[in-house]
Amino acid sequence: MAKKVIPRVITYLFLIIAVVVSLFPFYFMFVSATNTNHEILAAPPTLMFGSSLMSNLATLSKKIDCVRVFINSLFVSVTFTALVILIDSMAGYALVKYQFKGRGIFFAVIMMTMMIPMEAMYIPLFTLMTNIGWANSYQAVILPPLANAFGIFLMRQNFIAFPTAMLEAARLDGCNEFQIFGRIVMPNMKPALGALGIYMFMSVWNSFMWPLIILSTKDMYTFPVALSMLEGNQWRRDYGVIMLMASITTLPIMAIFLIFQKQFVAGIMGGAIKE
Amino acid sequence: MSTQTATSKETNAQTRPPKPKAGFFSHFKLSIKTAPYYFLLPAILVFGAFMVYPVISSLILSFQTFDMGEYSFVALDNYKTLMGDPIFWQALGNTCIYLIIQVPAMVVLSLTFATLLDQKFLKGRTLFRMSLFLPSITALVAYALIFKLLFNTEYGMINYMLSMFGVDKIDWLNTAWGARFTIIAGITWRWTGYNMIIMIAGLQAIPLELYESADIDGAGAWKKFWYITVPMMKSIILFVSITSTIGTLQMFDESFILTNGGPDNATITVGHYLYNSGFRYFKFGYAAAISYVLVLVIGILSFLQFKFTNGGED
């Protein structure tokens, strides 16, 4: 009996320590959002919730229009996610369920672009956006990341299992190809679309480098950019305010994760495991 | 390109619907032959504008310099300068440090967590898994700021805890190895849960019979892990290692926020150096050359991964 108990205790102990390390920074962030700079930078650092949440919020509101940032982030993320779901599922569907000239080449090109880092494209994209007058605009943030091979690959993998007989039946019933896709295929793919959607929503909500490059005025900032700007002068850094903003940035994604965690995990697993 | 193939393909489609007159526009009529091109059209447009165009434009740019608002052709000068640029080599060297220290640590941790979470006796599995995964959803900027505060020299939590064990204050963010350690701690915290999920998916694909027959042979947990789990997970481990290495090559948010690449470029990455060259010093041609070297290195790594995983799997 003892032989079994000890490894189990060690397993639990190890996992509990890991969970504490995982969650402590979140706890510290939330706690610090309710404390003053003075309390955060005390020795020992304050680890209990304080009473300065409202005053931190007031200071934050003076520096950044949080509602505006929230609207920017939400608009960019929702639009991007809707477009990426549509584009990727259409492309993935075409690559699996149709025989056509160029299919192999098209798929090969898409897979090859997976190796090209987004950073490699930022210089020409910046010049392009500036030249067509799109610098500092929503479309400049939303459009370039749409060229996303991962989503097409993920949807392709999911369409492989979709029964072709259902498509044939719909054709016999007189549906045209768009109707088949819109009325029969998409409604049956909700789990896969959910996984893709949540994954993409999160990646764009958190994206930093491209928005930092292309956005130049406060009224256009998304959360990560606004948060990085808040840091400012290191001698007058107000950590309570910074941690409050970090909390506001993190909370919506946390909520989405807790609600949709199953689909979310499916999205990551789908990308790693090949057929 | 796509429209050309679409039209040439259309001639076959004519035979299907019995339409007597075939005008020019009937080539584009929706049918089972034309539909795939319509479905692919948005992807083609997006990839053309935001992938193919920048990739080509970047290549041309890498043979030019941008000075006083004017571009001039300089052949391979940018690449030659780059090969003699100590900061660039430092950036590649930093990625090697992460490859040697951080990647193995994270692989061992994520495989260990995945294996432990896979134990039958474990209660509260979902709760453990969700908690360990939670760091992976945090915005990089947000967690970098939290770590910056935790690793603060004078007032940080880490130094306070160390002081309880009698360790003197460590200047984490302003010494080369301190800053590297902070970044390593940060990315390990952020990505271990993510890789753990991938490992769990891999573990579930291992046939249970292997473990059952090992049980009959009386193999212990450690032997089963070492002789069944690890060999069966070889390709997943490689996948995680290479994607993580590619990630550290491109890493920007952490080094930008936490250490700003410093001190003395001790934590700069290729991605961060590319940003500095392009958007701080506006050396567009030079930055484009860096991006092409980045593409090349990532291409080699991806090729290695592809080659070895195909060998590892059936």
TrEMBL record, chain A:
Q: Does the keyword Membrane apply?
A: yes
What are the residue boundaries of the ABC transmembrane type-1 domain, all occurrences included?
70-260
Q: Name one GO cellular component term.
A: plasma membrane
Q: Which UniProt keywords apply?
A: Cell membrane, Membrane, Transmembrane, Transmembrane helix, Transport
The annotated topology with respect to the bilayer is: Multi-pass membrane protein
Q: What is its main location?
A: membrane
SUPFAM superfamilies xref list: MetI-like
Annotated GO biological processes are:
transmembrane transport
Which residue ranges run through the membrane? Answer: 12-30, 69-93, 105-125, 137-155, 193-214, 239-260
Cellular compartment(s): Cell membrane
Name the CDD domains on file: TM_PBP2
Q: Which family does it belong to?
A: Belongs to the binding-protein-dependent transport system permease family.
Identification of the protein by name: Carbohydrate ABC transporter membrane protein 2 (CUT1 family)
From TrEMBL, chain B:
One Gene Ontology term of the biological-process aspect is: transmembrane transport
What is the membrane topology noted in the UniProt record heading this document? Multi-pass membrane protein
Q: Which InterPro entries match?
A: ABC_transporter_permease, MetI-like, MetI-like_sf
Q: Which family does it belong to?
A: Belongs to the binding-protein-dependent transport system permease family.
Cellular component aspect of the GO annotation: plasma membrane
Transmembrane regions: 37-63, 87-111, 132-151, 232-252, 284-304
What SUPFAM superfamilies does the record tag this protein with?
MetI-like
Keyword annotations for this protein, in alphabetical order, are: Cell membrane, Membrane, Transmembrane, Transmembrane helix, Transport
Composition-biased stretches (Polar residues): 1-15
* Primary location: membrane
UniProt protein name: Carbohydrate ABC transporter membrane protein 1 (CUT1 family)
Which residue intervals make up region (Disordered)?
Answer: 1-20
Q: Where is the ABC transmembrane type-1 domain?
A: 92-305
Compartments annotated for it: namely: Cell membrane
